Amino acid sequence: MPRFTYTARNRAGQNVSDTLEAPSRRDALRLLAARGLQVISTTEVAAGKSAKSPKAAAAPAVITKPSGRASALNRNQRLPFLEALHDLITSGMSAGEAVRLLSTRIKEPALRTLCAALWERLSEGAPLSRAMSDFPNVFDPATINLIQAGEATGSLNDTLTRLIAHLNEQRELRRQLVAALAYPVFMVFVAIGVSLFFLFFLLPRLQTLLASLGSELPLSTRLLVGISNFALHYGPFVAIGLVLGAVAFLRWRQTEVGRATSDAWLLRLPLVGPFIVAQSVLAFSQTLSVLLANGITAADALRMTERQISNRVHRRAFDEATDRVLEGESLSLALTRTNCFPDLVLDRLSVGENTGNVVPSLQDIARSYQKIVTNKLNVFTKVIASGVLLLVFVLVCFIAIAIVSAVFSVSTSFNLAG
Q1: Alpha-carbon distance 99 to 288, whole Å?
Q2: Would you give the end-to-end CA distance of the chain in angstroms?
Q3: Helices assigned H by DSSP within 214-271
Q4: How is residue 276 annotated by DSSP?
Q5: Which residues of 10-77 form beta strands (DSSP E)?
Q6: Where are the alpha helices (DSSP H) in 198-217?
Q7: For residue 4, what is the enclosing H or E element?
Q8: Count of CB atoms within 10 A of residue 388's CB?
Q9: How far apart are CA 403 and CA 187, in angstroms?
Q10: Long-range CB contacts for residues 20-28, cutoff 8 Å, separation at least 24
Q11: Phi (first) and psi of residue 352, to 5 degrees
């Protein structure tokens, strides 16, 4: 009978390595799962060879990386999959049977590919969290750890409920942001289009007409003509320079130093800074409450929450606070030392820690800041929209005044000549 070496994690969270005999790899994985072990790696020992080091000869359990169409999966499939899985588990099916059914019934190609790949791993004995970990483009570490905690505690359905609610809140916030910025962006393109039409199409013809009449142009018209001539002769070079500058800035921002520096700049802006602070508070309160409520240890929950904070200044501050918490300090006091988060938030968190209700306190903070972020987003976009409209109005008025002044100037010269 074939022999297999394996490395697995037991219920205490410790890694164990050993060998066992089984008719096939699939049977070996099922035997290990029946023992309560979470397989990390396994490999078949060739006949006539001894299993000296499982770690050295370890091959990934089941399938290590998705290939073919599975490699094109992304975060867009995460929430639909979790919602469909939750619906089937709620109806009484096991997680494995639910994934198997989804792999045959779902019509959407990418989601069906994901379910089929997950079922392939589950059918060989891997737990759901282990199967999901083979798709890092779809499932982030926080999601995988939540599912693993739900499996270990037998509360997978409750875990899915909280996780889906959390992901829906994040998706709604992104939808509000995109919807709020759509109108200002549209107005910017309209303003650019109107300006280009006047400068490159209408004004050159008007300038030729006025020059043929021989009248002296007013100051506003001369200024507009000068801008038009500059745009015609040097506009392409300016546009290329702006594009190159934007590309250079974006590439610099992708570096760790550039991201940290530019994030610090954003925090100093009048409207943007408070909005980013509110976003960071919402991110850490939402994520940390979900992780702690689902049985994730405080150390793991804090580290996973840190990765959900997008602003590098706040992420570094939260990392420093996490180190102090692991040394025995309270979270509220550790966050107070960073001087990055509002005092009222830290006071509410401190009350929760003192009363033993950290998770409810974090949930209350998340609900409050969901409204605050929405309100700040509305104010922010209204200010942008008003500023863009004002700019468009000033631009159109300036062009209209310049053209009308030129027409009046020509009319006056004709009247004087008559």
Answers
A1: 28
A2: 116
A3: 219-254, 256-268
A4: H
A5: 15-21, 38-45
A6: 203-213
A7: strand 3-9
A8: 18
A9: 23
A10: 25/124, 26/123, 26/124, 26/125, 28/4, 28/125
A11: -65, -40
Q: Find, among 116, 118, 96, the residue nearest to 106 by Cα.
A: 116
Give one word for 295, left, alpha or beta, with left for phi > 0 and alpha for psi -120 to 50.
left
Q: Rg of the Cα trace of the chain?
A: 31
The pLDDT assigned to 2 comes to 76
pLDDT one-digit tens code per residue, 16-30:
888 887 777 766 776
Check the CA dihedral 267-319-140-357 and report its sign. negative
Residue 261 in tokens = 């520096």
Contacts of 384 (CB under 8 A, 6+ apart): 181, 184
| Domains of the chain in sequence order | 3-57 (no CATH), 74-167 (1.20.81.30), 169-418 (1.20.81.30)
Q: What is the DSSP string of 95-108?
A: HHHHHHHHHHH--S
pTM of the model: 0.64
- 103, 116 in Cβ contact below 8 A? yes
Residue 21 β-bridge partners: 3
Burial level of 324, CB count in 10 A (0-12/13-18/19+)? Answer: middle
* Separation in Å, CA 283 to CA 15, 47, 131, 306, 341: 32, 53, 27, 9, 12
For range 224-251, the mean pLDDT: 86
Q: For residues 411 and 388, what is the distance between their CA atoms, to the nearest angstrom? A: 35
How many degrees, rounded to 5, is the angle at CA 293 between CA 366 and CA 315? 55
Quote the pLDDT of residue 216.
Answer: 67
Q: Residue 235 and residue 196: Cα distance in Å, rounded?
A: 11
Least confident of 187-196, 209-218, 315-324, 369-378: 209-218
Q: Could you read off the pLDDT of 85-119 as tens digits, one per residue?
A: 999 988 888 888 889 899 888 888 888 899 998 98
